[in-house]
Amino acid sequence: MKQGLREIFRGRRIGVVAMEGMGVEFKSIPEVPQATIAAFIKKAFAEHAGADAVYILGSSLEALPLIAPLERELGVPVCKRSPRASGKSRAPPCPRADQGYGRLLETLPA
Fold this sequence. Notes:
Elements: H1 2-11, H2 34-47, E1 54-56, H3 67-74, E2 78-80, H4 103-106
Parallel strand pairs: 1-2
């Protein structure tokens, strides 16, 4: 999966600095606390200096409310795939939202 997603990004001229897994069993993903997700993202971001954005993969992760706070702390755009967005498109989509989910979603055209 990681290699396929990496190629999708590259095909859209988006460089990939790193793809990190949390080491959580698939069935346990929905139970991961938001604080654990945020801490993991901050640590991975710090370990990979030079990243221009963070893309959170994992539709079962309860990470959408973390986007705006992570953007403020890390100073880069943060995006998370929405389970509703996993249709036929092979582009890495972001969920739609009006406010509170980060700068990328707040600036999407209606």
